[in-house]
Amino acid sequence: MNIFLRIGAYLFHPLLMPLFGTFLYFIITPRYVEPDLLFAKIMAVCIITLLIPLVTYFLLKNLHVVSSIQLEDVKERKVPLMLQCVLLLLIIKMVFDPYENPELYYFFVAVLFSAITALLLVFFKIKISLHQMGIGGVTMFLIALSAHFKVNLLTWIIIIFVANGWVASSRLHTESHSPAELVVGFFVGVIPQLILLNFWL
């Protein structure tokens, strides 16, 4: 059980959630996307939101700015979250267009607002669950896609709600977060997505 719970924290790591959301969109959307363009978009998201942060993490660890990829100490979150905000801005400016891909564009705008909120809370020494923030945002995005494209995604939605419980249980089991930190993290992820639905739904 211990291993099973820990796996949840790695499978649904915050760094993977933007890429997961992008995959979900391209799987669900009824619009035709050229294979070359699809590959280019996914690779751009993978490089910017996953590979660059991972390389930067090892650099920060060698400089003793962070101690682990879980960023358990609230002080360690400042630099990674600042970097994440810059990288998300890069995606918004360079990868997705608000007219061609409004769903993904505003998904990443909402992710940016969530990251900024988490960063601001760090300055007040308030720690939230970045895992719940990430998967909460994707959960809201999936529900919105179901309504937007009028597609029955009940199975996907059930799976992602189970994943939410898996991640929350994992974080509680490892004593990485309190229940309050998990709840706040979830809503920090969900609320920006909910607000920005007005621009594309």
Structure description:
This protein is an all-alpha fold. The protein has one domain (2-199). It is 73% helix and 0% strand. The protein has 8 helices and no strands. Helix 1 (2-11) crosses helix 7 (154-173). The longest helix is centred in the first third of the chain and has 28 residues, at 35-62. The model has no long low-confidence stretch (mean pLDDT 90).
The total of beta strands comes to 0
Distance between the termini: 40 Å
Mean pLDDT: 90
Q: How many alpha or pi helices? A: 8
Please state the structural category.
mainly alpha
The helix-strand sequence is: HHHHHHHH
Unreliable residue runs: none
How many domain regions?
Answer: 1
Bin the strand percentage.
under 5%
Keywords: Membrane, Transmembrane, Transmembrane helix
Transmembrane segments: 7-28, 40-60, 81-99, 105-126, 138-162, 182-200
Short description:
This protein is an all-alpha fold and 201 residues long. It has helices spanning 2-11, 17-28, 35-62, 78-94, 102-123, 130-149, 154-173, 179-196. It has one domain.
SSE layout:
Blueprint: H1 2-11, H2 17-28, H3 35-62, H4 78-94, H5 102-123, H6 130-149, H7 154-173, H8 179-196
Helix pairs in contact: 1-7, 2-3, 2-5, 2-6, 3-4, 4-5, 5-6, 5-8, 6-7, 6-8
Keywords: Membrane, Transmembrane, Transmembrane helix
Transmembrane segments: 7-28, 40-60, 81-99, 105-126, 138-162, 182-200
Keywords:
0% strand; 201 residues; 73% helix; mainly alpha
